């Protein structure tokens, strides 16, 4: 079912897109908890395996429930095709590995989630793929790093955890000039606030564990791109290495997609208000939010994104001790390294999500000992503001 041809709005796509029904005519999407599928005849099995019959073969390759999730998010994103994966990191690894072979070169922004940076900086070189890390906000750095053997450029925007905004269209143009593809991790922006394909990206990845689930229930990821890329490059990799999405998780994520606009719009509105409130507190040495005029790339954020973010970065004066005191004083906001949840969550990147980076690398990225990443949830904004301000007052005291 190709929902994009209907001209539906995103909210409608997220409820109805990609749905297929069994002969029972169920209202909710059916959950096909099966490893394999049966065939009426040996000839039918042969036709299924050689591609003459487009039906399902094995749930490691494809599954009806997973296919509904893939079709729905592809329709939302404006992609030709998508493949669900077991986690967000499986999606990142799949996107990069499917593009590369020994002798190739990858350019990536330095500001990456720790595991993403591990793949680019440590894992790819083990297989003969060289990599260069650049300041993602410096277009001259991208231009200098991209060379004829570059096959992929990879970035997050906004970045994790310092919320830098990178010019996707400009990097895409530079990548395409040498025949490389641009891979964009769009988790922090969500598919509602940023459309990487419209900006020139070739491949988009998500950790569906975050906003798409939105309620801390399960893991999942997705890779989106052209039909040719998904069929010819992603599918063989998936088929033979097995980073498949669970049908149960796909069903949960389908339910998450139905409420994605309601949650993200509310979370973003609350985050914008909290950012303004936190910026005024004397215990906050630095406040970073893409929707504010004092963001380092404010003009680009307004041009590239439809709204700010559900995420805030704040640096507490007093370093690690003060950051810990603030975190420990919170009552409503919970400490967790997840994000995009209905519950507001805070984490200290230097000792959690980015602790594997060398101290020099963290300093270079602006991940100081006092930096905290706040994922804004669905609680009432007044309650959150009171909780955060009370905790900040303990830092001053």
Summed over residues and divided by their number, the pLDDT gives a mean of 95
CATH class bucket of the largest domain: Alpha Beta
Computed structural class: alpha/beta
The strand count comes to 12
Share of residues in helices: 40-55%
CATH topology name of the largest domain: Aspartate Aminotransferase, domain 2
Terminal-residue CA separation: 59 Å
Shape: globular
Adjacency order of strands in the biggest sheet: 1-7-6-5-4-2-3
Please give the CATH architecture of the largest domain.
Answer: 3-Layer(aba) Sandwich
**How many structural units, i.e. domains?**
2
Main β-sheet description? 7 strands, mixed
Strand content: 5-15%
Poorly predicted segments:
1-5
Q: Could you state the CATH homologous superfamily of the largest domain?
A: Type I PLP-dependent aspartate aminotransferase-like (Major domain)
Q: How would you describe this structure to a colleague?
A:
- It is a single chain.
- This protein has 397 residues and is α/β, with parallel strands linked by helices.
- The chain folds into two domains: 3-258, Type I PLP-dependent aspartate aminotransferase-like (Major domain) (Aspartate Aminotransferase, domain 2); 261-396, Aspartate Aminotransferase, domain 1 (Alpha-Beta Complex), CATH 3.90.1150.
- It has helices spanning 10-16, 42-49, 64-77, 88-99, 114-126, 139-145, 168-177, 190-193, 227-241, 247-258, 260-279, 298-304, 319-329, 359-365, 381-396, and strands spanning 81-85, 105-109, 130-134, 150-156, 181-185, 203-207, 221-225, 284-288, 311-316, 334-335, 345-347, 371-375.
- The protein has a seven-stranded mixed β-sheet with strand order 1-7-6-5-4-2-3, sandwiched between helices. Strands 8-9-12-11-10 form a five-stranded mixed β-sheet.
